Each structure stands twice: as C-alpha cells, then as structure tokens.
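User: I've been going back and forth on whether these two constructs are worth ordering. Before I decide, could you fold them both?

Assistant: Sure. I'll take them in the order you sent them. The first construct and its structure tokens:
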Amino acid sequence: MSPDAFDNRFYFVIPANSVKDVDFSEVLESELTLRYNSDSTKTFLCYESVSIPSSLTSIKSKEGPYTNEEVSNILNDSDWSIETENLASEEDILV
C-alpha cells in the first residue's frame, strides 16, 4: 500500500483578519486561492511539514492542526458551503 499523498499535509483554520500575517511562501495557498466560510470570517491554510510554519505559530486564534480527513469534515459543514445559485455558470463567464 502506497502512502497517501495527503499524509504530510496539515491544516489550520484562521480568522480572516489574520491573513495579513501569513507568509504565503510557507503554505500551499496564495491570497488569491483562499476559500472563506459563508460569512467570510474564517479561512484555512494547508502546509506540508511536521513543523508548523512560523507565520502560523504567531496567529493566536487558529484552530488545528487538522489532518486532511478532519478538515474535509469541517469544510463539508454548512458554515463552509458555497451558495451555488449565486455563482455564475461557465456559460455566463464565456459569453
């Protein structure tokens, strides 16, 4: 059995106002790819390491670290769901 590609990935949920404190060279996201919860007060970050990136250690109100399975359960909660009826369809974007 091969190791899961996500075994070395860990996640923190952080307050949206803490994004400014993140060194994006330490995580797998960029400011443009962040996903926020439904009221835009939280986001999450992923990193690949056994040690917590230094910019994340300084964020006081973070939640985690979570495994891939744990963060998947969190993101499936209604607080993180995306209102698909308000999203533009691919056809609308291409027109």
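The second construct, handled the same way:
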Amino acid sequence: MSVQKNFVIKNGLEVNSDLIYADKDSNNVGIGTTVVTEKLFVNGGIGATSLIITGVSTFTQISAGGTTGSNNYFLTSTGTGITWTSATSRGSSVFTATVSQTTFSASYTVGFVDVYVNGVRLTSTEYTATDGTTVVLDDACFGGETVEIISYSTVPSGISTAISGITIQEEGVNIGTPASMNSINFVGGNVTATATGVGATITVVDYDYWIKNNTGIHTTSNVGIGTTTASSALTVTGDGSFTGIVTATGGFISAASTTPITISLVGDQLTFTASGIGSTTFTLS
C-alpha cells in the first residue's frame, strides 16, 4: 500500500511497548525505553558506519580494542584505529658499585625514583635524589653490589615535554640535562625572547662586565663609585678612606694639572718628580 501524503502523529507514538517511543510533550524520542531525557535516548548500543558530533558529548565509559582501558591509560591512534596506551613510563639504570662508591648518575624525575641495592629497595631516607641527574647513597658501597635506579614518569611514553637540542648551563657549568627540563624562564630586562612560528630569537644584553673567578675582583670596564660616568679605570666621586698603604705606580695628578707627580723614598731621600719639569729631593731626619 502506498500513501502519497505526510504521515502525521499528534499525540505521541509507541511501537511494541518501548521499542520506539515518542513523547509529544517533550518532543523527545526513546529507543528501547519510555524514559527519554534527551532528544534521542537509546537504551542499548548504537551501530553506525560513521558518527558525526558537532556539539558537546559526555562519556562515562569508552571502549577501544575490546576493553575500557585501565587507570592512567589514554587513547592513541594506531593509524588504522585506536588503542589504550599507558601514561606511565619506566626507565632502569643498572650499575656495579666500586669500593666506597656513593654517587650514581641517572636521569629521573624528582620524586619518581626507586633505588635497589642487590635487589633490596632502599627507603627514601637512605639516599638523596633531588637534582634529576644523580643519586647519592647515604652509606658507601663495599664494592661489587648491583645498584639499580628505576625512574618513573607521568609523561606518556613516546611523548616528551622536555627541551631538546640545547645544553642548559650556568656560568659555563651544566645544570641539567634536556631530558630533565621542560621550561626556561627568562628573568630580567637584559634577556628577551621573541617567538616567530615554531622558533624563538633570544637576545641577551650583557651588562655584566665583572669577571668571576677566584683571582680577585676585576672587570673589563671602568668602575665608578658615586658616579655613573667613570672616565678612568676607577673614578670616585667623594672622599676616600684607606687604612693601609696607597701605591700609585704612575704618580699623582692634581685637579688643576694633567702633569703626573711621582713621590719616591729611597733610604732617607724623599723625591718629588714632575714629569717633564724636574724633581726636588728632601733629606728626612
């Protein structure tokens, strides 16, 4: 039978008890249920060759590969489908200890590391692991022990937030490995980083002329005390007070003259010499 006109139902629809149910008041449709809280409520599974969702979707459970996954697992693409992948990675470094050895080098995330000596797990009070690169045992090894450092990470396996391709240093000394760092914080007005696309240009304005080592205080530029316009290696605006001996190898220059005057004492002979003018000697008694 064929009917060439619209088929209209005005007072709701129910097919075979709760097989298909249409609520005329809410305009909701239920399949497999008469309790319909959404525009389309399906009590059971949905089979479809494709599913397009343009709005917000709420899932209480997702099954992939025949399972709903486990705690700390996430969905990843296999290229032809999806699968559950563990969000926790595990690394192991094994050493044979030498006599009196306490320090072992290994990369780890601080707070996510276990240390075993000859298969016995140490408590966190028996070693120090705070820099991400070394583990220091409280008690020195006798020699020959098997030390295993197991590191864990909450970063998904195969996904890294660490910095790569650069070396992190402070004053020329490595302060960490790229695997143990995931950010660089530029502090101060002398350092700026301008990003373009996936890269960044870092500009450093070096106002630090001081040379840092253990040979004393020295600098490659003039030093001003009480002034910001140092015209010589040391320019002092104000009085100077010295409790020791003052040595002036090149002599002294008064404010009214640019001719240096040297003073020397040999035995009891005190000599004042003005460069290019002459000298006067006094005998001290």
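Notes on the second construct follow. The mean pLDDT is 78. DSSP finds no helices and 24 strands in the chain.
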